[in-house]
Amino acid sequence: MNKNKLFLSEEEIKNEISNAQEKLKNGIIVEKTIPDYWTNGINKKLSRKKLIYLSIFTGLFGVDRFYLGKKISGITKLFFSIIGVMVVALIINFKPWNISDVSTLVNVWIFISLSLVVVLSFYIIDIVISIKNPRDSEFRSVK
């Protein structure tokens, strides 16, 4: 088989399938099944509606992650949101710039604006994920 080809011909595909079936018969490779909770398992204890409300109203602080059982992700989200709010508040309150120095003022507000855009984009992505296909800590679907 040529390693530089992007697609295999029909004959090469048939050869690969027959080689795999032969290796399966000889015990060289083993066939495994994917557990149900990875594919179509459902966590009936969690409510999707409640998750959406938590994502919208408390998502910036990671409460929705704690609800799903994702403790490390929730703690990380909580930590970074608190640190981010503190940094922006310190920058705004202590005013480390001179009012006559417009370039520094513009740079500070650009930093604050970009930080806000990044945080809001993660927030919106989290809300979309909680609406479209939420999964708990064991990767089961939430209904």
Automatic annotation (TrEMBL):
<keyword id="KW-0472">Membrane</keyword>
<feature type="domain" description="TM2">
    <location>
        <begin position="53"/>
        <end position="92"/>
    </location>
</feature>
<feature type="transmembrane region" description="Helical">
    <location>
        <begin position="51"/>
        <end position="68"/>
    </location>
</feature>
<keyword id="KW-0812">Transmembrane</keyword>
<feature type="transmembrane region" description="Helical">
    <location>
        <begin position="106"/>
        <end position="131"/>
    </location>
</feature>
<dbReference type="InterPro" id="IPR007829">
    <property type="entry name" value="TM2"/>
</dbReference>
<dbReference type="Pfam" id="PF05154">
    <property type="entry name" value="TM2"/>
</dbReference>
<keyword id="KW-1133">Transmembrane helix</keyword>
<protein>
    <submittedName>
        <fullName>TM2 domain-containing protein</fullName>
    </submittedName>
</protein>
<feature type="transmembrane region" description="Helical">
    <location>
        <begin position="75"/>
        <end position="94"/>
    </location>
</feature>
<dbReference type="GO" id="GO:0016020">
    <property type="term" value="C:membrane"/>
</dbReference>
